[in-house]
Amino acid sequence: MKNTILLVSLPILFVLALNCLEVEAQVCRPSGKIIGKKPPHGKCNTEDDSDCCFKGKIYTTYKCSPQVSSHTKAVLTLNSFEKGGDGGGPSECDKKYHSDDRPIVALSTGWFNRKSRCLNNITISANGSSVVAMVVDECDSTMGCDEVHDYQPPCADNIVDASRAVWEALGVPKNDWGYMDITWADA
Questions:
Q1: Which residue among 58, 62, 154, 182 is least crowded, i.e. fewest CB within 10 A of its CB?
Q2: Where are the alpha helices (DSSP H) in 37-150?
Q3: Is 182 helix (H, G, I), strand (E, B) or coil?
Q4: Per residue in 123-135, pLDDT tens?
Q5: What's residue 25's pLDDT?
């Protein structure tokens, strides 16, 4: 009897393990390309080491992001949400600027999911710490290199663009701010 249960259980466990690996391995495929334009003089804000578009460079765009899980892998980047900062215009969720002293983020287009995460919290984990941050904006993965996007390229499909308060809460030394592998989940 025990052998029969074991023989029936093993294939089921194998299928479950494959499904878990498949979900973890799901990727977002590029949806298109845009050609970069040279920003007008002084129009691309390079605060926080932001990139500016280059004339003729081809940038990949995405309409999706990797699947969200309890430990979604992402890249944390630094962004200013204040007026005049490198984040461009007001936040997409509430059409306001926000203090960088608050733990707030912008998510890549697929994760932003047509504002479905607006003003909701996510938990970001890295560097042996975690922080709860509010989603206030989209890091646009579908467009870029124009005035609306501060002449910056489109975001990759796996970006959590964070205020300095997030970086501070994670205990990251200031000279290491910019890009860091993290995990996140809906709070």
A1: 58
A2: 109-112
A3: strand
A4: 999 989 999 999 9
A5: 46
Chain center to CA of 22: 21
Residues 84/127, Cβ–Cβ less than 8 Å: no
pLDDT in tens, 118-165: 999 999 999 899 999 999 999 999 999 988 888 889 999 999 999 999
What token pair was written down for 5? 């249960």
AA identity, residue 52: C
For residue 13, give every residue at least 6 positions away whose Cβ sits within 8 Å of its Cβ, in sequence order, or none. none
What is the DSSP track for 100-128? TTS-EEEEEHHHHTTTTTTT-EEEEEETT
User: Alpha-carbon distance 36 to 175, whole Å?
Assistant: 29
For residues 58 and 51, the model is more confident at 58
**Which pLDDT does position 1 carry in this prediction?**
54
Nearest to 65 by CA among 166, 172, 124, 140: 140
DSSP conformational letter for 132: E
Question: How far apart are alpha carbons 100 and 123 in whole angstroms?
Answer: 17
